[in-house]
Amino acid sequence: MVHNLHALGVFGEDERVLSARAFPAPTSDDRTAFERDRDRVVQARAFRRLAGKTQVFTSRASDHFRSRLTHTMEVAQVARHVASALNLNVDLTETLALVHDIGHPPFGHAGERALDDCLRQHGLRFDHNLHALRIVERFEQRYAGHRGLNLTLGTREGIIKHSRDYATLEHPELSEYFLGLRPPIEAQVIDLADEIAYLTADLDDGVESGLLEIGHIRENVDILRQSYLPVERSHPSAEEKYIFHDALQAMQKTLIKDLIHTTAANVERAGVKSLADIRALDHRVAVFSVGAEAQRRQEKQYLYDTLYTCKALEIEHTKAEEVITELFEFWVNYPEELPESYADDVKTEGLARVVADYIAGMTDNFILLQYAEVRRRVRMGRVPFPEHR
Questions:
Q1: How far apart are the first and last CA of the chain?
Q2: Rounded CA gap, 186 and 82, in Å?
Q3: Cα–Cα distance measured from residue 199 to residue 251, given in angstroms and rounded to the nearest whole number
Q4: What is the DSSP string of 340-378?
Q5: What is the Cα–Cα distance from 227 to 250, expressed in whole angstroms?
Q6: In the chain, what are the domains?
Q7: How does pLDDT run across 242-297, given as a tens digit for each residue?
Q8: What is the C-alpha to C-alpha distance for residues 371 and 389, in angstroms, rounded to an integer?
Q9: Which of 41, 54, 87, 318 is the most exposed place for a label (fewest CB within 10 A)?
Q10: Which residues 6+ apart lie within 8 Å of 237 measured at CB?
């Protein structure tokens, strides 16, 4: 536990400011504002849909592969550990971990790239962080008095700024979120907790899929090899897969420990004493050490070279891009085929953005059903596809 960082978490007056909501909300129970945010996120339909969205492998391949939801839960575990050790606001940190991927479309990063490419043709972009903000502010409708989840300012800031900073000139609509200033450490650690979680999980799922071999990983990923050897020495007769599992956990602990101690050292070195000081820095304090960062980059490159771009997944990615692109073009050309509930949004948001919103909210299975139905109608001659119009 790093006790001298207590004042740098979102507590006291900082917590009061960042607990502000756009609409009045009950405060009669004993939960903090960020705990109430957490509960609202977990109860949101968009959060539940993460169970049906690809992380790396689609759920059709195996029940055991991580979905976007199980990945999110693993990120929350790591984030809570880091926040507790650094004496940060654990409630805010956990909430940000649970909501950090809520804006992802179906089919993982392949789906996000395809949707972004579609929007570029209309002078727009798809950013899953900004889409997450749209979800919690507009699309979730659970309350009688307003649209959205009415989350706190602190949670909304963390949604958009946990992994990158936005410039005021490029995004004037985000001016309330302290653009140009660094986010609280609670938000900063989410991006690294995300990295730690998926670097561990993707090796695990890669081996489970048969696309990666444990021996090959050991030869090419230094941090895994360093974690594997002590386990192998302690359990020389154990099966390789069990040694590998223990090594993955040891690797994760190594990265978590490095993040905690490097962040604490950065805070001490910068001489910051408050959240205001954190915001005023020209860099983020929550980072890995130079050595751990090099190992992280090596492993990420290995995963990119051997898993993310392998032939089996490239086939999946190509199909995902085809499905999203064709459906996007279909609804842009035939907006009357959109659900009636989207008509008003088309008037205010523009057709291309609304079509992207509709697609982004879908699970893998639902979008495939929509694709099959549109294709069926095309075959029956009820409606032509855009290229035949």
A1: 65
A2: 9
A3: 9
A4: GGGHHHHHHH-HHHHHHHHHHT--HHHHHHHHHHHHHHH
A5: 6
A6: 3-312 (1.10.3210.10), 313-388 (no CATH)
A7: 999 999 999 999 999 999 999 999 999 999 999 999 999 999 999 999 999 999 99
A8: 18
A9: 318
A10: none
